[in-house]
Amino acid sequence: MNVTDVPAAKACGRAPGALPLLGHTLALLRDPLRFLSSLPEHGDLVRIRLGLVHAIVVCDPELTRQMLLDGRTFEKGGPLVDKASEVFGNGLGTCPHGEHRRQRRLTQPAFHQARLPGYAQTMADQCQAVTGAWRDGQIIDALPEMTALTIRVIAATMFGTALPPAAHSQILDDFAAVMDGIYAHMILPLPFARLPTPGNRRYQRARARLRHSIGQITDAYRADGADHGDLLSMLVATRDTSMDAGATGQSFSDAEITDQILTFLFGGTETSAALLTSALYLLARHPGIQRQLQDEVDTVLAGATPAYADVPRLELTGRVLTETLRIYPPAWIITRTTTTDTRLGAHVIPAGTVMAYSPYLIHHRPDVHAGPDDFDPGRWTSPPARDAFIPFGAGARKCIGDAFAMTEATLVLASIARHWQVDFLPGKNARPKPRTTLSPRRLRLRVTARGTQPQHGPAESAHLSLGVTQ
Question: Fewer Cβ within 10 Å of end Cβ, the chain: N or C?
Answer without folding.
Answer: N
